[in-house]
Design brief:
By secondary structure, the chain is of the alpha+beta class. It has three helices and nine strands; from the N terminus they run ααββββββαβββ. It has one domain: Lipocalin, CATH 2.40.128. The longest helix has 22 residues.
Length: about 140
């Protein structure tokens, strides 16, 4: 009987500690561990013809630094994060001429971002309840 009680206690302990660790995951550690490739924009699948240079991406770096690719130009700026509230500032952007509206649509959406939801397989950026963009980790 003591063995059963000990086993039950051990199982309950592991369940309690594992559930607690899931709730304490820092979103910053998930953001900075990936290059995030754009998957949807304004609730729609990407029209790759609007991004002639490739799929836009974001890189969240240590110290609140942000870098990325808009589908045509590179940028380097900053981000701030507090819980699920996030502010993105693309900062300096290269100035290549870009056909299509994809880059402008992407950068306009970045300016509206106020909240995020992130796990190891998906990053979603919101303006209030409106989903602006979603990203997936870019394969190396």
């Amino acid at each position: 009987m003591k063995r059963l009680q000990s086993l039950s206690f051990t199982i309950i302990f592991f369940l309690a500690t594992s559930c607690g660790s899931l709730n304490s995951i820092n979103p910053l550690s998930l953001l900075t561990g990936n290059t995030w490739a754009l998957s949807t924009l304004m609730g729609k699948e990407l029209d790759l013809s609007q991004f002639v240079g490739g799929v836009p991406s974001l890189n969240f770096l240590d110290g609140g630094k942000l870098s990325g690719f808009s589908g045509c130009n590179n940028f380097s700026g900053n981000f701030s994060l507090e819980n699920t509230a996030v502010k993105l500032d693309p900062g300096a952007i290269t100035k290549k001429a870009c056909p299509g509206s994809g880059e402008q649509d992407f950068l306009s959406a970045i300016d509206k971002v106020g909240q995020l939801k992130v796990d190891k397989n998906k990053l979603t950026l919101f303006d209030g309840d409106t989903e602006l963009m979603s990203f997936i980790p870019k394969g190396d």
